[in-house]
């Protein structure tokens, strides 16, 4: 089959590789009909998350048709059309039973892999997301092996288009969880969202769906800010305005009641921003690389929430903890417990509250994916979200 392969830092390409096979009786094989490139893939492309190996298949946002099931699979059958959450969960361990699917105990045998080196402990297994996260082959390919097939895959009606439901695999639940974690008080609270990438877009729209009185989105890319405005948010371009002053003024001096950091560890701002040389440096993020989080903490109203869907890894230096302490802030963060949100978000889509396809700017076949990784990373050509058809 054809697949998008990690070929070393900064380099991905299309290669022909063996089709996946069932390895365990609880596995299924899915023939991928649509797959997307995520901001999280950029951490792998750039080598910011370690333990990728040449030849690894990327991709964790995908859906398709079940073409094979293991002998122990009960809920899925060949021919089912499914979306597949990006995190792999066993469904029976203590964290899974408590709905903490992204902290599953049983899907990632390598979760302590980087502990000795970096103080990093990873969570559940993830598709296409390094050996620290289990080394599972990803979904930017024609076929994928899906472990724990009775737990993750979620059946979808034939009446719905791929583009309406594909983002249930990750970025819609991720934005939604970030907004839920804010504990928004209806018709009162103001929420600021740092980062107008796909995650920030869904966080902003979710905050409005959850009743925020106002949402303010901060980024520097006009096309992304425009998309946020189309969704009902106010915006700040941080290259043209002093963010902290603007947020202060737009909230009557109180500051946003909650702030969402939908940027993560590669924040653009006052720092070098470029790739760092050694793995050790890569995982030690300095003051220069946490601009968005610093703005989030400094702007947030007293007693507010700093919700962090943006990915962090390793060690982060020089956080303004004094300000956070003085204001009594609440921090919520982590990988999304995707499975939890599938029912409610599917109802929002079916009820017409939101059509997630608004975020797509580029559609292509797999062969164009390497070029589109660069386009998406460099924010060129007004690129916000790329969807790939592996059979085109
Ligand atoms: P993206 O790279 O497309 O978007 C990031 C945006 O942040 C860009 O528009 C960029 O211009 C903006 N930005 C950079 N520095 C900024 C700053 N200082 N202030 C404000 N905006 C700034 O990525 P994405 O797909 O939207 O993903 C965003 C983050 O969410 C990534 O870290 C990604 O890994 C993470 N993510 C987390 C989960 C999860 O489970 N928690 C799931 C998916 C993605
Ligand atoms: Zn993703």
TrEMBL record:
<dbReference type="GO" id="GO:0016491">
    <property type="term" value="F:oxidoreductase activity"/>
</dbReference>
<dbReference type="InterPro" id="IPR013149">
    <property type="entry name" value="ADH-like_C"/>
</dbReference>
<dbReference type="InterPro" id="IPR002328">
    <property type="entry name" value="ADH_Zn_CS"/>
</dbReference>
<keyword id="KW-0862">Zinc</keyword>
<dbReference type="InterPro" id="IPR011032">
    <property type="entry name" value="GroES-like_sf"/>
</dbReference>
<protein>
    <submittedName>
        <fullName>Zinc-dependent alcohol dehydrogenase</fullName>
        <ecNumber>1.1.1.-</ecNumber>
    </submittedName>
</protein>
<dbReference type="InterPro" id="IPR013154">
    <property type="entry name" value="ADH-like_N"/>
</dbReference>
<keyword id="KW-0560">Oxidoreductase</keyword>
<keyword id="KW-0479">Metal-binding</keyword>
<feature type="domain" description="Alcohol dehydrogenase-like C-terminal">
    <location>
        <begin position="198"/>
        <end position="266"/>
    </location>
</feature>
<dbReference type="Pfam" id="PF08240">
    <property type="entry name" value="ADH_N"/>
</dbReference>
<dbReference type="InterPro" id="IPR036291">
    <property type="entry name" value="NAD(P)-bd_dom_sf"/>
</dbReference>
<dbReference type="Pfam" id="PF00107">
    <property type="entry name" value="ADH_zinc_N"/>
</dbReference>
<comment type="similarity">
    <text>Belongs to the zinc-containing alcohol dehydrogenase family.</text>
</comment>
<feature type="domain" description="Alcohol dehydrogenase-like N-terminal">
    <location>
        <begin position="25"/>
        <end position="151"/>
    </location>
</feature>
